[in-house]
Amino acid sequence: MTEYRTGLGWDNHRLAPGRLLILAGIVIPHETGFEAHSDGDILLHAVTDALLGAVALGDIGMHFPDTDPQWRGASSDRFVQHALGLVRERGFELSNVDTTVILQRPKLKDYREQIRANLAALVGLPNDRVNVKFKTAEKVGPVGQELSAEAQAIVTILRHTDK
Ligand code: C5P
Ligand code: MG
After folding, report:
1. Which atom of ligand 1 is nearest to the CA of 138?
2. CATH number for the domain harbouring residue 133
């Protein structure tokens, strides 16, 4: 039998001048970027929470408290790798990752393949099992007014059992 599980993740960060706008490790040239304790990579934070969710292990703040100096400026790759390790320890493999980034500006579509390839390499999947979608917020609310950006992720994991 195959046991399937799904996990959901969401993150947001404020945008501020002089910070990096970084999505799945790809730096996007722009006049603002994420204000955060770590590198602020909302896409990797959402994927981390989705992986933790699939194995019912709480959320990113439980595993990497933002009060802990060891995570200051941390590359978010480490959060994903840690969560993936917890998934694999329980005998699961990752089947696919789907994501959405909600950002008013700049347009991200020229970076789609780079972001997708980086995310796929990070989670150890072929590109055709990883998807990255982009949406504006139609100029409405804090995301639409370019004060912040959001990311959503959903993952499916599976493991084979005897039963
Ligand atoms: O939000 P909206 O539906 O207007 O977005 C239309 C398309 O623009 C999206 O499907 C996406 O391909 C692209 N987009 C983008 N970068 C953004 C927001 C949207 O490339 N920051
Ligand atoms: Mg639309």
Report:
1. 1
2. 3.30.1330.50
